[in-house]
Every structure is written in C-alpha cells, then in structure tokens.
C-alpha cells in the first residue's frame, strides 16, 4: 500500500498545519472544511507560514509556491475524498461530532481508504467501531504547532491491522516527524497521560505546601529539566484544552487523574492562559511572554510529589503494555521538551524516596496515589 493523496478534514490550527507539513513532504493534499471562508482563512495562514520560511531562507520562493500549489481547498465532502488514500480527521474534540463526521465520511470514501484521527484524548477504538472499517482506522496525534513540533503519537485501536500501523509510522517519518507508538488505546495516550494529571498535581502541591506558583514552576524547570514551569506550560497550552482532556480522561479511567477544582474553575471563568490574557499568571498583551523563574526560587520547593505523579503514570503505561521506557523518554523529550530523561531524574531523587512519597500520599489522600508495581520492583 502506498499513499500519495491525503485529505485533511478540518482547517483549523492543527488541520492547516498538518496539510502544510504533508504538502511540504510532497503529498497531494485536499484541505476540507464546511465553509469556504474557513478554507480561505486557512490558506492565507499557510501562505503566511511559507512566506516566513522564505524570508528566513529555509526554503526558496519556488519551493514555497510548489508546496502551496499541492494543497487544494474543497468544501464538498464527496469531491474532497474522491482520490484520497488516507483521510486525516482534525475536527474539534467532541465525540458526537467526530462520530457524525465519520458517518458521512464512511459513506463518501472508498472502502480501501485509511482513516486517521488526530485526537489527543478520545478513544480510537470507540470512534473506529462506528465505521465499516475499524481495521483501517488509527489514531495519529500531531502536536501543536504541527509545523514545528517533531512528535507524533501513533495509536492503533483494538482492531487496527498491523500493516496500517506500520504504514502510518512510515507516513509520519516521510513528513519529517518522529513517531512514538502508543501500543494500546489508553486514556491520554502517552504525553497527555503524563502532562495533564501533573497540572492538577501541581495545584495540590500548592495547597499542601503553600509554595508560590513561581517557586513550583522554578523547581519544575531547574530541578526536573522541563523547558518551562508546569503552570506556565498549562497557560501556554490553554485551560480549555486541559479541562477538555481532564474530563475525557477521567470519564474513561478514574485512576489516571485526580481532578483539582481550580482547573474547572479557571475554565468556567474563561481564564484560559495566554490566549485570554490570564490563566495561572496574568499576561500584558498577546506577545509570547515568559514568567520570571530562577534557581533561587527553585530551592524553596521540593517537587518530589510531581515527579512521583508523572513517574507513576509512566510506570502504569509500561505495566499495562502501552509503552516502554525508551519510547516514553523519546515522547517526553520531543513532546514536553524535557532536557533530561525522566527515569534519570527519578534515579537522582531515588526510586525508594518516590515510592515512599507515593505511599505516604496514598495514606493521606487515598488509593489514587498507590505506587505502580513496576516502581516498587525498581527499588
């Protein structure tokens, strides 16, 4: 099986980004949305992005024109998928909406066409089972912005054929990205399973220790090797995204996340982070702004509870056959920007110290914190 023609359904930030990345790699791309005005806006953004790369001398004017000409915007669904070999669906993260889209798509697309959903949290198997081709259905989770982020999570559903998984991994490689395979369709896949619960845990850490946001963030940045603090990262990601992922993941597995009321409260109050001017921190304007963090502030906070949380979830992924240490480290480096391997940080802090901390938290705050058997075996 070879793929040359791709249809991207949805022309928002992720959709037009994936279309651009695919066209850059030489694929013929149809970009489809429900209104012409959405497509016009998306094509404008692609043009702006390509022009910027020409200005920076990353590509030539001819290359930019070639990439742009390989993307065809189309509103009519039947027309949009008539030559497609693979459809990458990038509609909003609402299960009913996705199912509705796939009901239409399943009728419109030829039976041999592969369906790939760019979901970050929704169950692949459940969506796949609403189509007539669950064996040709796969999760392909690009990170935002797709033009810059190297990581793509590939998630087979329960019925996905092995050749489709391999073909998708090859596709990811062909568009100059790095694939990380999440072997089981688990809530949050790999990155969100580590990142989203940690945002909640940071809120609990603040409650339990009275540390300031800046102290916690400094510890995360300088002691744990994150590129920015966890609250800063949450503001950058957007509380709407985090709240949505929280609800989805918690719905599917109560053990994955211990929701802190602050996240929902901020979402309800429209404190969405940088995009709204206020999240955990306040931002003065729409330019990319960084919080003042320092090694002095880092010394005032012990981030062991956060390490314990992220490590326990990583161990769960391994114990449950969804991933392994090597793939998790690759995902953390590319998806979270970790400067130091997670398990290396854990060894420096001491696996025994982490397990003791989890046992202590479990006694005080319940079963959620029970250490994964893998961590106990690593002592």
Textual characterization of the structure:
Keywords: Oxidoreductase. InterPro entries: 3-OHacyl-CoA_DH_NAD-bd, 3HC_DH_C, 6-PGluconate_DH-like_C_sf, 6PGD_dom2, NAD(P)-bd_dom_sf. This is 3-hydroxyacyl-CoA dehydrogenase. Pfam families: 3HCDH (PF00725), 3HCDH_N (PF02737). The chain folds into two domains: 5-181, NAD(P)-binding Rossmann-like Domain (Rossmann fold); 191-378, N-(1-d-carboxylethyl)-l-norvaline Dehydrogenase, domain 2, CATH 1.10.1040.50. It has helices spanning 13-24, 36-55, 61-69, 77-81, 95-108, 124-128, 162-174, 191-209, 213-224, 230-237, 239-252, 261-268, 295-298, 304-319, 325-336, 342-349, 351-365, 373-378, and strands spanning 5-9, 28-32, 71-74, 86-89, 114-117, 137-142, 151-156, 178-181. The N and C termini lie far apart (46 Å). The mean pLDDT is 95. An eight-stranded mixed beta sheet has the order 3-2-1-4-5-6-7-8, with helices on both faces. It is α/β, with parallel strands linked by helices.
How much is the radius of gyration in Å? 21 Å
Which descriptor suits the 3D outline? globular
Average pLDDT number: 95
Q: Which segments are poorly predicted (pLDDT under 50) over 5 or more consecutive residues?
A: none
Strand content: 5-15%
Helix content: 40-55%
Please name the CATH architecture of the largest domain: Orthogonal Bundle
Number of strands: 8
Please report the first level of CATH classification, the CATH class of the largest domain. Answer: Mainly Alpha
Structural class: alpha/beta
Total DSSP helices: 18
Summarize the main sheet.
8 strands, mixed
The domain count comes to 2
* Strand order across the largest sheet: 3-2-1-4-5-6-7-8
CATH topology of the largest domain: N-(1-d-carboxylethyl)-l-norvaline Dehydrogenase, domain 2
């Amino acid at each position: 099986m070879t793929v040359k023609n791709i249809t991207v359904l949805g022309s928002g930030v992720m959709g037009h980004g994936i279309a651009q990345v695919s066209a850059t790699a030489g694929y013929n791309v149809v970009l489809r949305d429900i209104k012409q005005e959405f497509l016009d806006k998306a094509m404008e953004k692609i043009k702006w992005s390509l022009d910027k790369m020409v200005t920076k001398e990353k590509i030539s004017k001819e290359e930019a024109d070639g990439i742009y000409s390989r993307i065809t915007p189309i509103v009519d669904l039947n027309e949009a998928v008539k030559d497609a070999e693979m459809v990458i669906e990038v509609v909003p993260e609402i299960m009913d909406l996705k199912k509705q889209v796939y009901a239409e798509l399943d009728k419109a697309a030829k039976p041999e066409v592969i369906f790939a959903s760019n979901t970050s949290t929704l169950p692949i198997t459940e969506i796949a089972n609403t189509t007539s081709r669950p064996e040709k259905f796969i999760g392909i989770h690009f990170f935002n912005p797709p033009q810059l982020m190297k990581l793509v999570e590939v998630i087979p559903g329960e019925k996905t054929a092995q050749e489709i998984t391999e073909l998708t991994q090859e596709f990811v490689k062909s568009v100059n990205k790095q694939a990380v395979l999440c072997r089981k369709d688990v809530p949050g896949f790999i990155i969100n399973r580590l990142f989203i619960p940690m945002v909640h845990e940071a809120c609990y850490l603040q409650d339990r220790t009275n540390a300031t946001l800046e102290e916690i963030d400094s510890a995360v940045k300088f002691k744990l090797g994150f590129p920015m603090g966890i609250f800063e990262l949450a503001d950058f990601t957007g509380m709407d995204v985090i709240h949505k992922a929280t609800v989805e993941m918690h719905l599917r597995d109560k053990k994955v996340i211990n929701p802190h009321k602050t996240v929902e409260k901020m979402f309800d109050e429209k404190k969405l982070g940088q995009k709204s001017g206020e999240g955990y921190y306040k931002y003065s304007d729409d330019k990319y702004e960084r919080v003042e963090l320092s090694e002095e502030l880092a010394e005032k906070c012990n981030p062991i509870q956060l390490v314990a949380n992220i490590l326990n979830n990583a161990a769960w992924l391994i114990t449950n056959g969804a991933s392994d240490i090597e793939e998790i480290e690759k995902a953390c480096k590319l998806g979270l920007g970790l400067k130091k391997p997670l398990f290396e940080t854990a060894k420096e802090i001491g696996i025994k110290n982490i397990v003791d901390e989890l046992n202590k938290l479990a006694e005080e705050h319940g079963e959620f914190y029970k250490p994964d058997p893998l961590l106990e075996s690593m002592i």
